[in-house]
Amino acid sequence: MSNIILVRFNEIHLKGGNKKYFINLLYNNIKNALKEYNCLIESVDNRLIIRDYTNFDEDDIIDNLKCVFGVHSISKARELNNSVEEINDFVANLKIDTSFKCDVNRADKSFPIQSNEYEKILGEIVLNNNPNAKVDIHKPNVTIHIDIRTNGKSFVFYDIIYAYSGLPLGENTDGLLLLSGGIDSPVAGFCMAKRGMRQDILHFDSFPYTSAQAKNKVILLAKQIKKFIGAKYMYVCSMTKLQEEFHLNCNEEYAINLLRRSMIRVANYLCDKYKYKAIITGESLGQVASQTIESLTSTNAVAEYPVLRPLIAFNKDEIISIAKEIDTYKTSILPYEDCCTVFLPKNPIIKPKIKNSLKEESKIDLNTLLKYVIDNI
Ligand code: ATP
Ligand code: MG
Fold first, then answer.
1. For residues 231 and 209, what is the distance between their CA atoms, to the nearest angstrom?
2. Could you tell me the pTM of the whole model?
3. How many whole angstroms from 260 Cα to the centroid of ligand 1?
4. Which residue owns the Cα nearest ligand 1 atom 11?
5. Distance between first and last Cα of the chain
6. Pick from 264, 266, 248: which is nearest to 343 by CA?
């Protein structure tokens, strides 16, 4: 009989022939997330079991597990053998002084008692040993879960802690997250990671118009989301020279549109060079002038990779509530400027036309300037 942490997954069950591959991926990602805990991780019978972590705090381990996508839920459990006697003995020693119910999941169909019947038997055992316990099958204060698996082991636990589900971060699915210092882009990275996309980070600054503090804030955000998105690299690209040229030579109304298109071109370059398969942004339809459907069409026109915008249909309050949940909100609202707020036009174009963007871009030596900013990443 030992203390273990039980990890369940859900969407992976739908993976048919690829299920083994995804379980393996999840196993490796958990191993990586828990590497400092020296624990053993076992993959058995549709569960992952974490054991031998005696010198560490279970709650710390669980906090780490919650950040691993593909994990559906987690329980602190006792591991027993699939023996009626052993389970009965264990349940007889539980101290219950409130309303309770027993919930039996019998995956091992060779276990001699059916779930419903066994729930009643175990309920009786609890009642016989705890004068203040009473059964409430609808709203019990305590649920005693007994998960009887096909590997000869049963797990007994009270609480189920839910994680984010989704799919484990995969191999060869890397994306490039355009991370500003705002609220939206860290949430966008989180959302794509939830679907298994590992991401590295690209940030644009406009030094000296943007400050070192502004960059440090983004570095802090990057550190905060790293555990979710699996980032290994952060690229910082200074757009100062390009922005100055746009400012001096181009129609002011197009300043942000031109900047956005150049951001995508820089992202194209990094995707080519480092084999990222998609560009991820925190854009949400209609949120600002640069996020109207016409503006998005204009930036898409220069993209050589899919631009994924997981927040496209999210309201700001929905985005904020995720930002709070993943703990990036407080950093995001620190009041530093972004390169998009430098040389901000009074009336940014709301419905840019691609032919006008091209006309504005032809007023400067765009290729040389792009090469310059890229060479300085
Ligand atoms: P956010 O809250 O993510 O900053 P936002 O609502 O301020 O978004 P914009 O400033 O229009 O919107 O930016 C839209 C998206 O463009 C961002 O979510 C981000 O993906 C990308 N982006 C904007 N500024 C930068 C930057 N300085 N570096 C990298 N990406 C950026
Ligand atoms: Mg922003």
1. 27
2. 0.94
3. 9
4. 290
5. 55
6. 248
